[in-house]
Amino acid sequence: MRRREFLTTMAAASLLPQVTGRAMAQTPAARPERLKLGVASYSLRKFPYDKAIEMTKACDVKYINFKDFHLPRTESADAIRATIAKTQAAGLTVMGGGTITMRNDTPEEMATLRKDFEYAKAAGFPVIVAAPSIKSLDAVEQLAKEHQIKIAIHNHGPEDKFFPSPYDVYKHIKSRDKLMGMCVDIGHTWRAGVDPTKSILELSDRVYDLHVKDLSDLKNRDSQVIVGKGAIDFPALFRALIKINYQGHVGLEYEIEADNPLPGMLQSFAYMRGVLAGISAT
Fold first, then answer.
1. Which domain holds residue 58?
2. pLDDT confidence of 32, banded at 50, 70, 90?
3. Between vectors from CA 244 to CA 238 and to CA 246, what angle results, nearest 5°?
4. Helix, strand, or coil here: 65?
5. How confident is the model at residue 46 (pLDDT cuts 50, 70, 90)?
6. Which residues fall within 8 angstroms of residue 69, CB to CB, at 6 or more apart?
7. For the chain, what is the domain count?
8. Distance between CA 87 and CA 93 in Å, rounded?
9. CATH number for 205
């Protein structure tokens, strides 16, 4: 454990009794929710819908972003709405869906693109996390306006020929409709040589979603670890999100240990809550 991480964790731990005591003295409605910690359901891609919901609830979070493993795009509108209602009955708020690849190079791709928006509308997604091409942006913007759904373009690091970092997204959307924004993947952003905390502060007006992970090596996509055990500065990141009054999803995208992700996810959320407790107390 690095010295900064150790000190941050110990400081948060030492303050938890005070924070917990104050929180218990408040009614649930009065407790401030600094950030909307939740699950990107890609983390649970090896599990069917019911098990994924059970595991999400085990993480003691209220928010989820659906990958189509758990809410198939091939379902009817009625089936999609039924799954969303079931999710809400389980106590979860659906923050969006994706990542969805978006292209319009052929008539077939354009038809699929429209169906993807109809799927999102049926699901009631406030945000689609998307991976468009630059060429498809006009069509994506048109459909976003037509359906009144925000688009959060996901950056995928140095391998992404369109959008390696949030700055590459921003330069292509800054003059477009405000429905066009970004999903900042903090791991991929670091691998692109960009500090995600700095980009969130500088591009705050278009940050609509966040994918959270940790890396032991900020240049290596295969170095993902449990959040808090890597090199990413989460206290700085969370302070930046609070500073900009970020209201979107802070979605844990736990891509490792696919066959048994829950222990690492639980540890990741425990660390993130500890960081938030330390920030709140100070």
1. 3-17+34-281
2. low
3. 70
4. strand
5. very high
6. 41, 42, 44, 45, 52
7. 1
8. 8
9. 3.20.20.150
